[in-house]
Fold these 4 entries.
Entry 1:
Amino acid sequence: MSILSRLFGGGSKPAPEPELYKGFRIFPEPEAGQGGYRLGARIEKEVGGAMQTHRMIRADRIQSAEEAEAFSIRKAKQLIDEQGDRLFG
């Protein structure tokens, strides 16, 4: 995608709705690359009146974009279960 397309929104798909989980918002954001899609997600939660964000990127690769989104959400939920608010420092 060219820089002009990015600036003016051409060719981009609409932002996904977040998955809500235990007070966190999970936005699946797998990254396309050679060999498939790398798992990734943005995890957000309001803490003390401020929005906190954690970017999760995994080395796992999945062939399909839809499967990569589903696995990204599953991994983000696992991370939330393991770390909770500690994700934000």
Note: The CA atoms of residues 28 and 74 lie 10 Å apart.
Entry 2:
Amino acid sequence: MTTKLSLGNLGAIAPAVAKPSYARGDLSPGIVHVGVGNFHRAHQAIYLHKLFETGRDLDWAIIGAGVKHYDAAMRGKLEPQDWLTTVVELDPKGFSARITGAMIDFAAVDPAALVELMARPEIRIVSLTVTEGGYYMDADTGGFDAGHPEIAADAKDPDEPRTVFGIIIAALMKRRVAGTPPFTVMSCDNLPENGHVARNAVLGLARLRGDDSAAWISEHVAFPCGMVDCITPATGPREIAIVAEKFGIDDAAPVVCEPFRQWVLEDNFPQGRPALETVGVEFVDDVAPYELMKLRILNGGHATIAYPSGLMDIHYVHEAMENQLVTGFLDKLQHDEIMPTVPEIPGVSREDYYRMCVERFSNSAVGDTISRLCLDGSNRQPKFILPTVRARISQGVAVDGLALESALWCRYCYAETDSGKAIPPNDPNWDRLTAQSKMARDNPAAWLAMKEIYGDLGENEAFAQRFEHWLNALWRDGTAGTLKKYLARG
């Protein structure tokens, strides 16, 4: 027997489930958040929920928003339950559930209405989780893609915007005319220098308008960078069943996540901000060192375990962490090559951070999959692995394990595991990657010739030689045999 989630039914939900202690009627909006997906509801919305539980800053509630068809679908799921969400933390020691109410409305998926909403004076922050692909980045340069058809359409008709950045610009210009101070644009997406990326997208489109909007935005609008972290699986039948069977709640769009979350933010909010430091958010002058630590140790660690596990037909991440060859590879590569490239942060232990990552990877309750970690390697490798390779090369030190990691990715893109099972496409450039991998079986240099990924690294003799050595070993000895040889090197 389950209870349909809604404000009116909160009293009927089991006492074991934490419910909002604040009255929803006491909240008023201060944030418009674009992209009401699982990560937002497991991360930013949780921090605000916790803040409201203390009785503070009740004028910073969220109005959800979106511009895509799936945003309309999410709105349709959340509206009947009064915008409430059940968040279940998957701690192996015992699951816990809370109902969060930090979002008090969800705007209609209508660009004109969204411009009007963002132009309201009480909105002081517009935040985003629109995924890396939502920032219109050029695949080759990493900069803003001014030629994207959606951007071109907004540039041609700026008064009828369709992209989130066109809508943001239109709202900012409306505030400018009205004499209303501009809101802060806060990216909450998991990508390097997310504030700079958001700024580049807004300014890139504004420059195409042919007016002075780009100059005004550059001078007056803040785009703080932030580092965000919380493993949040997609919601499927398994997750809905957990919420229904363990907690008796009928939630159309519940969220499950690990019990860990982190948020480090540059303190750059000219129109004010909620006191999130009271509920665990770290405000710093420079996010870059924290971001670098996460990118190299956590994200680089995920990449390290992903491809050998995929080649050995390991399904779940926690199962990979039970395999001594995988964990041995992770531990040796981290300590020998990755962690030494991460600068010290006062008061933060790299070793403690790494051990925490290992604990998180080992969480069997999350059910994170190796196939998810293997996704989109052509975008992830240049962000999570290859900068570390370059840092090591610049220092004149070994890249042996990093070359093996790259060889494992190449071997994985052959689209066949060691046992002969087919690996389904999992990258926007899968066909090209597979073709290059097949050529690299006899000519390893063919893989490193992908300059859009490796740049000039293929011309570095030290890296290229070790890559060739390990790729040949993978074809000769298999993944397990190759890892044993790597670990035996001491």
Note: The chain has two domains: 3-284, 288-487.
Entry 3:
Amino acid sequence: MGEWEDAERDLLDALGKNAQDPDTLANLIAVGLHLGKPTARYAAQLRTLAPRHPAAQRYEAGEELFARAAAAAVS
């Protein structure tokens, strides 16, 4: 509904109550991207806790694509 700041606040509160919830971490990544905030910390936590979570797999795939594009640009 476009209320990203409110969502971020609620998700950070949820994370404070359960830092091991992969869905909270995945949603923090999504909100952070919409707000233009760094998400690497949450992505690292998510990949550690739930590497098979769809959001963790998408993040990993994105990093791989970026690495390939960067390597191609350098060569």
Note: The CA atoms of residues 18 and 46 lie 13 Å apart.
Entry 4:
Amino acid sequence: MFSRILTPAYRLFKTSATQPSTMKLVESAISENSVTIFSKTTCPFCSATKSLFSDKFPKVPVKVLELDLLEDGSAIQSYLAQKTGQNTVPNVFINSRHIGGNDSTQAAYQSGRLSSMLKV
């Protein structure tokens, strides 16, 4: 009985040290690409975000990292949560600036802010 109570609390409060290689991979992907999307192949919100870029901005290069296909995908997602406060995917960055998830990205497109950020 105590394990069911303590295990979630332990997970909540334990500190996990992010590997330098994970941090470097994330930071490099963000800084070296004008658009970086951290995604999962089975996520419908991720698909909507990727479709937005491919349909509306086909000439803009987009770096997509599919976390469910990467060995350290869960570590990357944990690091992104620490970095941005967002636990979910997609996690979108434009010109090294965190935009947010699908809703934020779609709203930025609708308002015209996305076009101005991409300078198209």
Note: Residues 23 and 62 are 20 Å apart (CA to CA).
